[in-house]
Amino acid sequence: QVQLAESGGGSVQPGGSLRLSCAASGTTISDLCMAWWRQTPGKQREVVGRLYTYSDYYPSSVRGRFSISRDNANNTLYLQMNSLKPEDTAIYYCAAGPMSGLGCPRNWEAKYWGRGTQVTVSS
User: Fold this and answer.
1) Is 90 exceeded by the pLDDT of residue 100?
2) CA gap 104, 121 in Å, rounded
3) Which of 42, 69, 110, 123 could be cross-linked to 95 through a Cys-Cys bond (beta carbons 3.0 to 4.6 Å apart)?
4) Distance of alpha carbon 25 from alpha carbon 4, whole angstroms
5) Comparing C-alpha atoms, which of 110, 96, 79, 105 is closest to residue 31?
6) Do the Cβ atoms of 31 and 41 come closer than 8 Å?
7) How far apart are CA 69 and CA 42, in angstroms?
8) 3-7/18-25 β-pairing
9) What is the pLDDT of residue 41?
């Protein structure tokens, strides 16, 4: 059974940085397509970073400030968030889906979700 556990959330001032972690168990992350999402009350869930076979995707709202990295040795996915803004305040979720024969195509679907970690950006 695949499980994802996020950590690293907290409160930070605008302009600050945080690194979120997503520890996977039940499989190795090298066999997973992975992404980070966020959600605030009353708003639709938004992807903030998504890994494909040959590229990464970041929406314009976070591009240049957020980046995803994998640590296969520790079976952990990271989200580095820099130059944080108050509008980045949300619950951040790690998501993953099984890798197919095509690797991680652009339409890969998340099957596994973590419980989320709160990020609050405020002065």
Assistant:
1) no
2) 32
3) 110
4) 7
5) 96
6) no
7) 29
8) antiparallel
9) 85
